[in-house]
Amino acid sequence: MFTRTLLGLITVVVALSAPGGSSDVDWWENAALYQIYPRSFQDSDGDGVGDLQGIASRLAYLKEIGITATWLSPVFASPMSDFGYDISDFKAIDPVFGTLDDFDEMIAKAKALGIKIILDFVPNHSSDECEWFEKSVNRQDGYDDFYVWHDGKLNEQTGAREPPSNWVSVFGGPQWTWNEVRQQYFLHQFQVKQPDMNFSSPMVREHLLEVLRFWLDRGVDGFRIDAVPHIFEYRNEDGSYPDEPLSGWSDNPDSYDYHDHVYTKDQPETVQLLYEWREFLEKYQEEHGGDSRVLLAEAYSPVETLSLYFGNGEQRGAQLPMNFQLMYLNGYSTAYDVKNSIDYWMQTMWAQHQTANWVVGNHDTNREADRMGAHKVDLLNVIVNALPGASVTYYGEEIGMANVATECTEISCDGRDGERTPMQWSPTKNAGFSTGSGTWLPVSEDYERYNVQTERGVARSTLQIFKGLQELKKSSAFQAFKTAGGFSYEAVSTHVFQIIRSNQLNEEYRIYVNLGNGIEVLNGLSDKVYEFVLLTSYSPRRLGELIDLRDRLVLMPYEAIVLRWSA
Ligand code: NOJ
Ligand code: MG
């Protein structure tokens, strides 16, 4: 009793005095973030497509598994050519997802539960069915240069008209498409149905700030900004556009990899724009109170560039430039690969800004089970949640969902369908996702085994492990991640990765992950005695068992464990 009180006192003193200690930590810095793909999370009206009422009805689940904030892929009015990443009205909810009233109710429910809602903000382009584009095509109401227009070039030999530059779109094929009405080319870094807006136009910037304000006024906590690197394009002073150089990575002239994107990615103006948006959010917070509003930046860019997007000193940009490095690991990755991947981020972002975030999946990438192998999902989940900083989980990864081999249908024929299938809630019809006769993408055949309801009842299921990790995040050792010496990570053998979290006082966690398919024996890892506090399904141990790390530690193939020492 006495020691407890004494330790309690010491902890309080440390927390108050530690520079960079937990009192300085803003909510997003070590948040558990969760991405919802709204079409696939929960259907409330039986049409086989997920919706806002469905999401609202599942917010309690997010609370249960320890989520701080959830970001929703786009729910705005859209012809759905890119499933919502082609917006036709930035201030309207698409009827397939519900109404603005449904949205407000969802926000109210999230607030009551203490879960933050982050929306997808897609500034680079709109749908070609957006009123703004229609006005621009017809040169109406000052919308002339709202998009990126150009006459193209005349080929002197053939006399034919050609696109302004050789730029190839992210999805392949030319970035320029001829518009018959306006008799000019327009730019689209993505699909033809996603024309790029012209950010040199003050009117574009104003319109998009209005969009941000509209959703902030409805109570959202921040935005995930889509396609950040693509926002600005370089233009010569005479108004022409320079060709991009060959990259040497591809032989296919129609492929995005054919060129090195020096003129269409990560332009300096984009960095400035992020600072402007952050300033806007900070001003909004000053005026309206509440917690920090956040910006997540989607940028497949070098970490050095992400550091610019984050900002420095007075120039603050996106708090969470998303770190995709761990998504590049695969089933053959060793503990050294994991370390290198983490180092790449930490040596720049942590060293300069003491910030980290770890994304392990999204709607554009194969699921963990497919990238790593089903038996390694828990290992990856342990690593990302044991590292300091924020974790970003794609819906379903917490239960070990796998990609589904899908076929083209009338609704969708997208190479990314496989990772977008319905959330698996229960071992019942349509996995509990929908009461309808069908679902927009097929439910995975493995849903009777991998689903929330079943996994709740199975010790050491992927779901239980995920929940256990979120509990650990609340411990004082995990909270002290900005204190000097608060964490370390290391490859202790080719296959075993170690993470240490400590409050530098009376609590230390050691996490060991064996990525290999062999038994690992490690000697003299520490001079203390630890307790097993979290075990994965390959562990022969029991919770509460003690281990003296002066002796040897034996790890089974694919085993991950969490050990705790306390004084
Ligand atoms: C990135 C999004 O994540 C992806 O799904 C979309 O197709 C492109 N941006 C274009 O908006
Ligand atoms: Mg652009």
UniProtKB/TrEMBL annotation:
EC class of the enzyme, as a word: hydrolase
Catalysed reactions, as listed in the record: Hydrolysis of terminal, non-reducing (1->4)-linked alpha-D-glucose residues with release of alpha-D-glucose
Protein's GO biological process: carbohydrate metabolic process
Pfam families reported for this sequence: Alpha-amylase (PF00128)
Keywords assigned: Glycoprotein, Glycosidase, Hydrolase, Signal
Domain of life assignment: Eukaryota
Domain Glycosyl hydrolase family 13 catalytic: 35-456
UniProt EC number: 3.2.1.20
Keyword Transcription: no
Coiled-coil regions listed in the entry: none
InterPro entries to which the protein is assigned, alphabetical: GH, GH13_cat_dom, O16G_dom_2
Transmembrane segments: none
Signal peptide limits: 1-23
GO molecular-function terms, A-Z: alpha-1,4-glucosidase activity
Protein family (similarity comment): Belongs to the glycosyl hydrolase 13 family.
UniProt-recorded name of the protein: alpha-glucosidase
Gene: LOC115634514
